[in-house]
Amino acid sequence: MVNGVPISGTSVGAVPGPQGRGRGRGKRGLTALALGGLLLVVTACGGGGDSADKSAPGEKGGTKDAAAVRNAASVAVVTVAPKDGSKSVATTGVLKVSADKGKLTSVVVKDDKGNVVEGKTTPNGADWEPTQHLAGSTKYKVHAIAKDADGRESAKDTTFTTLVPQNTFIGQYTPENGSTVGVGMPVSINFSRGITEPDAVEKAITVTAEPSVPVEGHWFGNDRLDFRPERYWAAGTKVTVKLNLDGVEGRPGVYGEQAKTFSFTIGRSQVSTVDAKAHTMKVVRDGKQIKNIPITAGAPSTTTYNGQMVMSEKYEVTRMNGATVGFGGEYDIKDVPHAIRLSTSGTFVHGNYWASSGTFGSANVSHGCVGLRDLRGGGKNGTPSAWFFNESIIGDVVIVKNSKDKQIAPDNGLNGWNMSWAEWTK
């Protein structure tokens, strides 16, 4: 007993070990020490739970070991190809970022204008590659981060510059940026060099529509690529085209040099149907017939093509020389009024002032064009030809039927509508 307080043998002999059981008994030992200072040795054994070596969850060893792990350098190693400072790097097939003993958590590749190169990381986090080609003559910066199994980060920063193309190609396109066109207008791109890598070139071009509609491309030979939907565009549609051709290797050693976006709008719907047998042309706008015009089509020896044709050019007055389209010296008219081109080979809807007025609606006398009554000199002269010219826009459709000729070839003008969707997309 110390100062009247009994010392329990149980309190001394039953003090638990350093796992922390029986902390309450340790506290009673501390109380006894405070009262008499006689239990110094006992409390050193009984209260040891708070001073034990504890390990953080998921870590081996004590706090000192955990801190050592956190402060150690990451074992993850980031590798970037091409090497830092590389010059004349190919625009495809070279750039790759990899992580060893860790996983990639961030890869950012930008050109010297701040444009980001899109890419994809493999599911296991080991590799990253771009999903697009790079531009030529461009400096790129790479910033990549990987984490090891303990969450420690390792980073890599590199720069490289792509090759300077010695041979290039461009795409000349129609319609013009900002234009309003008819429902039949395709996007047509003619390349300045023959393309031997069509998939790479087509992948670099995107055509989107608002309201949305699937748009697919079709190659005519190796130097022309057209895009269209399955059916004519809906009136009011806005179409946007992105030519991301800079750096695309279109043929061995020949690279694209365009990075351009343009757009156009589809105006009202106008489709005109020429019946070569009946000698008429019915003009339908937004689903309603607004005019029935007497016409003359191709003569029996020079018939007019059948099929769907898209207006590609308009001339108030133009010269038509038979020698330029295989008819020798049969005609050379220097002032044909109100001419609208329907084919590359020379099919037009145009004014005709040299035939008698009774010809229109009763006979076919042309060299394959569709003729409408007109006056010499053109202008707003009140004739059917002047009316049709003024009411038409590039991209409107003219359909010819009941002519004793074949269907026009889909690449003869902007006339891919003469292919089925299955043919167009295969």
TrEMBL record:
GO CC, one annotated term: extracellular region
PANTHER family, per the entry: L,D-TRANSPEPTIDASE, L,D-TRANSPEPTIDASE YCIB-RELATED
InterPro entries named among the record's database cross-references: Big_10 (IPR041280), LD-transpeptidase (IPR050979), LD_TPept_cat_dom (IPR005490), Transpep_catalytic_dom (IPR038063)
Keywords associated with the record: Acyltransferase, Cell membrane, Cell shape, Cell wall biogenesis/degradation, Lipoprotein, Membrane, Palmitate, Peptidoglycan synthesis, Signal, Transferase
Organism domain of life: Bacteria
Official protein name in the record: L,D-transpeptidase
Biochemical pathway: Cell wall biogenesis; peptidoglycan biosynthesis; Glycan biosynthesis
Gene3D superfamilies (UniProt xref): 2.60.40.3710, 2.60.40.3780, L,D-transpeptidase catalytic domain-like
Domain L,D-TPase catalytic, chain residue ranges per copy: 270-401
GO biological process, alphabetically ordered: cell wall organization; peptidoglycan-protein cross-linking; regulation of cell shape
